Amino acid sequence: MKSSTALALLSTGAARVLAAPFLEARQDSNEFIWENEDGVGNAQASIGDGLMSFGNIVPSTTLQQIDEHCTLTGCTPGEELSVPAVVVNSNYGNDVEIKMTVEGSFNAAGDRGSKAQLLDLAKKAMEELFNKGIATWEQDVKYLEDRCPGFQTNCNPDGAKYADQWKSTNHVSVRVNNDDDGGLAGFLNVGFSYGDAEGGVCGALTAAGVGLGLANAFSGAGLVLLGVACAEI
Questions:
Q1: Domain-wise residue ranges, the chain
Q2: Which of 98, 172, 206, 225 has its CA 20 to 30 A from that of 147?
Q3: In the record, which residues are listed under signal peptide (predicted)?
């Protein structure tokens, strides 16, 4: 039951995130770790190399705050938001803030590159990381809320609780282009920050076949994925 609830959350909306500047260099096809074999496409995606803890928060659900805080035409660069989370470390639950920044430029609602479409594409990218085993979910992790007083080294505090623990990438960005001139229709660039992120996502992306999975997901939105880059940020 718990499993089905969590997986259902992965396919629903979300809350907001820490974005690094949109990396123009990463849009060059030479930087892609996966590229459409035909060499054509009207969409691009970039995933961060860092794997970080989201605590008890389903990573893709963080995107909902973008919908709530950004306008229909874009997001203010550098605006920082945060999402509260419980991170279990050394058997104790820690109340933390997942720091978030976002930037983006959106086309009109209903058009290619709209806010709704870009949010959906970013969510698909994060969900694909989970589907391929790069993002992880540990169910029902036991933790204690109360710590021993500073002067005690051996005590048995009460109040054991349980929380799922998630890890995912520290960055995701998507870009959609116009068909007629190849110009930008819209982009969304999102980054996340809490503690120290582990590396290794870039290598795992290639091994897990994420590019092909994202290509299939994007095609469902009527787009052709040109390539997937990995941002070492």
A1: 2-146+158-231
A2: 98
A3: 1-19
